[in-house]
Each structure stands twice: as structure tokens, then as C-alpha cells.
Amino acid sequence: MNALVSRVRLETTRAPEFIDITDQVVNHVKGSGVRDGIVCIFSKHTTAAVKINENEPLLLGDMEEFLKRVAPADGHYNHNDFTIRTVNMHEDECPNGHAHCQHLTLGTSETIPIIDGDLQLGEYQSVFVIELDRPREREILISVLGA
Known about the structure:
By secondary structure, the protein is of the alpha+beta class. It contains three helices and eight strands.
């Protein structure tokens, strides 16, 4: 049994933003030497998600608009009221309740089977990191386990 973990650092530019990391995942799997197993792609952030979907420009625009409708940035969120919030605060804290709520519809990780050294993605499936908050550096873990 082999295990290999790598860290991918990304610079995001806007929110929402869909960043296709499929090539990085494929390269990590190839470099791992694992022929049969799984790869897990995990976001270390509560306002940046990992999802599998289709990389088609019009659909990406539709999905961005969907997220904005689900939890609009200008909506009311108690999390954004810094006069009453006392937990998990940082000096550079910004109002991001919408990003946390959008994350509820997405998720933190995806797991993909590996067979004969190849990711078992469907014809139109790509792996995305989705920025929901604001431009910044993000860290994603890619973990391969198998033989």
C-alpha cells in the first residue's frame, strides 16, 4: 500500500471563482505510482470548496450566478455583525457569512477511484476548487492511497 500527499497552493482572483485543478490531480496520481486506489482532494478552508463538475464556460457562469442567488453577499448574516460576534475573529476579518452558507451546498472534498493508474472521471468531469470569499492564497491537499 502506498500513500502520497501533496499541497497545492492557489491564488484566487474573485468570488465566486471556479479553478480547474484536474491536471494537477492527474499529475499527482501519475507521480505517485499508484495503479489502483483512490485520490482525495481536500480544501483546508471553510470558504473554498472542492467539487467535480463540467468545465464549460456558460455552465460555469450559471453556477456562479446560482451561488450568488443561494446566499447573496449583500444578505443579512449574524456572522458579519462584528459588534456581536466574538468567536474566530482575526485582525483582517471581513464579512463573509454568504461564503460559509454557499459552502454548505458544495463541500470540502472529492474522492475519485484510480484504476490502472488512471482517474475514473467521466467524459465531462473536471475537479474544481471554488473560491467563495475573496481573492487570496488557498491550500488544497491531494492524497493518493493504493497499490
